[in-house]
Every structure is written in C-alpha cells, then in structure tokens.
Amino acid sequence: MEPLTIDTGLAPSREVLDALGRTAVFSAVSGRGLQELAPHAEVRTHRRHDRLWDRGDTATEIAVVLSGRLQCTVPGHGGRGWIRAVLRPGGCCGLSALLDGGTHICGTEALETSRVLHVSAAATRRVLDKENAFALHIARLVTEDLRRAIVCCGQMALQTPLERLAAYLVENADGGGTVRLRETQGQIAAQLGTVREVIGRSFRRLEDDGLVVRRGRTVKILGTEELARLAR
User: Fold this and answer.
1) Which domain holds residue 188?
2) What would the pLDDT profile of 134-147 be if each residue is shown by its tens digit?
3) Which residue of 16, 84, 104, 202 is 20 to 30 Å from 215, comparing CA positions?
C-alpha cells in the first residue's frame, strides 16, 4: 500500500474535521491538535474486499471506521487465518504500529462498502508528543485491545469450540437475547480459531440442547443462563 500523501497547502475539508471531531479515538485531542491533524487525514470509501494493508506492511497510517465494517486478519497457511477483530463504526486499527513504529500486525480489508478515516501515523505521533491527555487515551485503547487479545488466546487454549461459540453469542446478543449474524459461519469460525464445519456442528448442538434457535441469520437465545455458564 502506498503511503498517505496529502497536499498540506490545501485547507482541510469540513468532512475530515467533522470526522476527526466525532471519532472516539481522537476524542482527547485538543481543537488545535485536530486542526494540525486534519491536513494529514482523508475520508475514503472502500468497496467489499478492498485491502487497506497487509500484515508486515510499513505502518504509514491508522484507519477509523465511519460506516461499514473492516476485518483485521492474521494470515495462516493454506488460506486459513485468524480474524483478530471485526471493526464496526468507531473501531480503529493500526494503533500498535503507531506507538512502536513497527509494521502492521494484521492485514485489514473491507467486509462491505465502508467509509474510513485514514490519518497519517507520523502526524498522529507528532500530536501525541505534544498532548499528554491524547497519549494517555491511546495508551488506554491499546491496553484494552491487549486485554481482549489475552482473553481470546485464553479461550482458544482452554475452551472447546462449543464453549467459544457460546461466548461469542453471549457477547453479541442484544438486550432481548437476539443475535443478528453479520458474518458468515466461516468468518465466525476464523474469529474463534476453528473451521466452518465445527461451528456448524456446534450450532446444531446448541439447538439440540434447546439453548438457541436459528432463523436465517438471526439467533434467538432461549437458555440464557445455561449458555452463559457454558461460555464461562
């Protein structure tokens, strides 16, 4: 992927300033800092399967989802990979490489047509150096992501695929106990460290046990407490 290059002689667009101002990752940046970042940012529309970057690419920017979804993947052998995260509006990728100046640890692509705010990593680091509140905010976000990664690794090491699927459903259920599946069974499997066939069998097991019922891409949780115990 080519580095982000923007003519800083042009005034930043209102769209960019508005996007920076309402994005959680930049919520701790001062007004002056946002003005400094804006000439080094742009909003792009990515179509489904467009790749933002590959694992190991030099990190020249970070990306924030404004609409749509991005998928962050650690590639494996034989076409398999671990979907590290599915980012929805407000989600950000590239923060680890931003802080240590290294390469991207995940490949990132659009799962559907998505509007994404791209911000220069170098410009962001300059603002980080000047604004302590922003630096602390980014450190907290990276720490939260590290905690999620450790929990995920623990689940893969210590839980069965059935238990991991139960945890996935509990985590993604709305207040009424309904899960609307936006990812395919294969994508869910890649997030949970297994394969599509195993997830299919696990869904059938949960249905046979009366814990869930599936209708198309909607899953209704019937045994909330039992499913939560299984997830733990």
Assistant:
1) 159-231
2) 999 999 999 998 89
3) 84
Classify strands 212-215 and 218-221 as parallel, antiparallel or unpaired.
antiparallel
CB within 8 Å of 85: residues ≥ 6 apart: 71, 72, 91, 93, 106
163 and 145, same structural domain? no
Helix (H, G, I), strand (E, B) or coil at 143: helix
Sheet containing 178-180: give its strands across. Answer: 178-180, 218-221, 212-215
Q: Is residue 2 part of a domain?
A: no
Task: Give the integer Cα–Cα distance in Å for 178 and 215.
Answer: 11
20 near 38, Cβ under 8 Å?
Answer: yes
DSSP state for residue 134 in the 8-state scheme: H
State how far the Cα of 56 lies from the Cα of 222, in Å rounded to an integer: 43
What residues contact 232, with CB distance under 8 A and at least 6 apart? Answer: 167
Q: Name every residue whose Cβ is closer than 8 Å to that of residue 162 and which is 6 or more positions away in sequence.
A: 202, 205, 206, 230
Read off the tokens for 7.
Answer: 């003519």
CA distance 186 to 168: 14
**What pLDDT, on a 0 to 100 scale, did the predictor assign at position 2?**
40
Q: How many CB atoms lie within 10 A of CB 19?
A: 21
Q: Rounded to two decimals, what is the model's pTM? A: 0.74
Query: CATH number of the domain that 66 lies in?
Result: 2.60.120.10
Q: Is the dihedral of CA 106, 107, 113, 116 positive or negative?
A: positive
Question: Over the stretch 185-200, which tens digit does the pLDDT of each residue have?
Answer: 988 988 888 889 999 9
From the number of C-beta atoms within 10 Å of its C-beta (0-12, 13-18, 19+), residue 174 rates as exposed
